Amino acid sequence: MRWLSQICEYWPLRRLASITDSDVESVLKSYATNPSTSTPLDTSILDSRVSKLPQIILAGSGPGHPDLLTRATHKAILSADIILADKLVPSGVLDLIPRRTPIHIARKFPGNAELAQQELLSLGLAGLQAGKTVLRLKQGDPYIYGRGGEEFEFFRKEGYGDRVVVLPGITSALSAPLFAGIPATQRAVSDQVLICTGTGRKGKPTVPPQYVATQTVVFLMALHRIKGLVADLTTHDSEDVKIVDENGEVDQSRKLWPLSTPCAVIERASCPDQRVVRTSLEWVVDAIEEVGSRPPGLLVLGAACEVLFNQNSRKEGRKWVTEEGFKGLNDLGLAEMGLGVCGDEGGRPDVVRGDSFGRELKV
């Protein structure tokens, strides 16, 4: 029943309310298709306007809210011949895509990430060979755990290095803490920021950073393995280097993180359903198990997490505090003058957003 859970999680509510039998049949047919088979790649979505010179644009769409797009990325969205989007690009950003522009949404799900990535690269290359302007739309910033560098190398090896344009985006690693009221740096509290991933190649755990009292650490792609991550941060393993001092005492080279370290889990940053869970390393696993998951999310560690936060609620015995909702841009009147809204209230009626198969479902 993975197909059902996927569409319930990612389809807009309005689209779910109008689902038909034919839609379900299309989804089931897509689900039955094994992406690892050697079926020919469907490049029919490339049949659109032809550019004078081919171009591939690697662009970041920011943390979620469409008003946080750069003007350059917004222009690229409006002018591209074809758009290849990551699965977690929110509907508020996809709503800005002109109806005439074909969209392919990455069909990434657990166990299929590499195949889906290769499919996107193949479609991008086919678009370049057809003389198109291809927009590779990513979440956050393309060079902050967005595989943008890998994609640049791929197209350069294919002879299109001079046709690649990279546009920055606001990374959630820095904007999500801001929207949660966490200053990544603060005098006398934090003078360093470290951005890490909790998941390495092929899903393997990464080497945990050592504890630095004046450092703020942001973990992306880590919440799905939060229990293992906390264990890695707070305990030594057999691979840690042992040091014997002059007194013959054995110490470990990596300084462990105290369980009392303040931390925050920030999910869906800048979207209406933003959620912040404030706690400590000691209780973060229990907190996530209780409140559940709302991807995409990240973990922030360090004393900066409590600089602007009223700690009385946790001092009164509460192990964690949960905050719901985001209204950070409404007070500026950007909802009236900006690009759109973030969330699942609407959506392009001709494209189903974020299904697990990355297929367009025409209605």
UniProtKB/TrEMBL annotation:
<feature type="domain" description="Siroheme biosynthesis protein Met8 C-terminal">
    <location>
        <begin position="1"/>
        <end position="34"/>
    </location>
</feature>
<dbReference type="Pfam" id="PF14823">
    <property type="entry name" value="Sirohm_synth_C"/>
</dbReference>
<dbReference type="Pfam" id="PF00590">
    <property type="entry name" value="TP_methylase"/>
</dbReference>
<keyword id="KW-0949">S-adenosyl-L-methionine</keyword>
<dbReference type="InterPro" id="IPR035996">
    <property type="entry name" value="4pyrrol_Methylase_sf"/>
</dbReference>
<dbReference type="InterPro" id="IPR006366">
    <property type="entry name" value="CobA/CysG_C"/>
</dbReference>
<dbReference type="InterPro" id="IPR028162">
    <property type="entry name" value="Met8_C"/>
</dbReference>
<comment type="function">
    <text>Siroheme synthase involved in methionine biosynthesis.</text>
</comment>
<keyword id="KW-0028">Amino-acid biosynthesis</keyword>
<dbReference type="InterPro" id="IPR014776">
    <property type="entry name" value="4pyrrole_Mease_sub2"/>
</dbReference>
<feature type="domain" description="Tetrapyrrole methylase">
    <location>
        <begin position="56"/>
        <end position="282"/>
    </location>
</feature>
<dbReference type="InterPro" id="IPR050161">
    <property type="entry name" value="Siro_Cobalamin_biosynth"/>
</dbReference>
<protein>
    <recommendedName>
        <fullName>uroporphyrinogen-III C-methyltransferase</fullName>
        <ecNumber>2.1.1.107</ecNumber>
    </recommendedName>
</protein>
<comment type="similarity">
    <text>Belongs to the precorrin methyltransferase family.</text>
</comment>
<dbReference type="GO" id="GO:0019354">
    <property type="term" value="P:siroheme biosynthetic process"/>
</dbReference>
<keyword id="KW-0627">Porphyrin biosynthesis</keyword>
<dbReference type="InterPro" id="IPR000878">
    <property type="entry name" value="4pyrrol_Mease"/>
</dbReference>
<dbReference type="GO" id="GO:0009086">
    <property type="term" value="P:methionine biosynthetic process"/>
</dbReference>
<dbReference type="GO" id="GO:0032259">
    <property type="term" value="P:methylation"/>
</dbReference>
<keyword id="KW-0808">Transferase</keyword>
<keyword id="KW-0489">Methyltransferase</keyword>
<dbReference type="InterPro" id="IPR014777">
    <property type="entry name" value="4pyrrole_Mease_sub1"/>
</dbReference>
<dbReference type="GO" id="GO:0004851">
    <property type="term" value="F:uroporphyrin-III C-methyltransferase activity"/>
</dbReference>
<keyword id="KW-0486">Methionine biosynthesis</keyword>
